[in-house]
Amino acid sequence: MTDGMRRQIVAANWKMNGSSELVQQLVPAVREAVSALDNGPQVVIMPPSLYLGEVKAQLADSSISIGVQNVAQWQSGAYTGEIAAAMAADAGCQYVLVGHSERRELFGETDEVVAAKVSRILASGLQAMVCVGETLEERDSGDAEAVVCRQLEGALAGVSADEAVNIVIAYEPVWAIGTGKTATAEDAQAMHQAIRDKLVGLGLPGNAMSVLYGGSVKPDNAAALFMKPDIDGGLIGGASLKAEDFIAICQAVSS
């Protein structure tokens, strides 16, 4: 279904949701279901940073990876409230989500800031899950591909072809996040193909890199999305907070 080198990945972005109780209920259920999958995807759970230790404890000796939802663009120092990429590595994370549209919109993160974070993430030995996506206005005016390509070019400035093995792209149309609207499988596939072409144009091994779709992925639309040749899995928001839904999405990838 996909290039032999491409990893299939399903990542759970809890955003600013969760509690110790949720960790204790959800994570063991996901762990058990994922361990039963044949040929299952790489599953990544990205809780709020305060719960990383608890999630990690629940996942000891499992194949599931953990990640953080953001890191700072600085190495260390007087940045109250921030978390460094090196700390995420030290805490046992494997992945960092970077450039999510909520960070871009609500916290003013530019492509330059995203690029600085990507370089910290790679320098810390972690994998960067780089989010790109257009707004409804940009899509309606026919600029969707141009916007996404510009974000890719900005975020990956300075990334070498060798480093690309530690980068996953997540395409999340902003108009589909939490709205219940989803890009059709055909629209998503077309953008994923454009993303690969752009990566290749940037001198990166675009056909060997995992590109995930995010934006209101649910059990009932997951299979149609994941069947497309250029969609290697999903970045899941709301549905990742419900064990049953998240497990069904993981199963859709493995089938």
TrEMBL record:
Gene Ontology CC, one term: cytosol
Pfam families listed in its UniProt record: TIM
Localization terms from the record: Cytoplasm
Residues of the active site: 100 (electrophile), 172 (proton acceptor)
CDD domains given in the database record: TIM
GO biological process: gluconeogenesis; glyceraldehyde-3-phosphate biosynthetic process; glycerol catabolic process; glycolytic process
Residue sites binding substrate per the record: 13-15, 178, 216, 237-238
InterPro entries: Aldolase_TIM (IPR013785), TIM_sf (IPR035990), TrioseP_Isoase_bac/euk (IPR022896), Triosephosphate_isomerase (IPR000652), Triosephosphate_isomerase_AS (IPR020861)
Keyword annotations of the record: Cytoplasm, Gluconeogenesis, Glycolysis, Isomerase
Entry GO MF terms: triose-phosphate isomerase activity
Ranges annotated as spanning the membrane: none
E.C. code: 5.3.1.1
UniProt entry tagged with the keyword Isomerase: yes
Catalytic activity, as annotated: D-glyceraldehyde 3-phosphate = dihydroxyacetone phosphate
Pathway this chain belongs to: Carbohydrate biosynthesis; gluconeogenesis; Carbohydrate metabolism; erythritol degradation; Carbohydrate degradation; glycolysis; D-glyceraldehyde 3-phosphate from glycerone phosphate: step 1/1
UniProt enzyme class: isomerase
PANTHER family xref list: TRIOSEPHOSPHATE ISOMERASE
Quaternary structure (record): Homodimer.
Family, per entry: Belongs to the triosephosphate isomerase family.
Its job: Involved in the gluconeogenesis. Catalyzes stereospecifically the conversion of dihydroxyacetone phosphate (DHAP) to D-glyceraldehyde-3-phosphate (G3P).
The protein's name in its UniProt record: Triosephosphate isomerase
Organism of derivation: Marinobacter segnicrescens
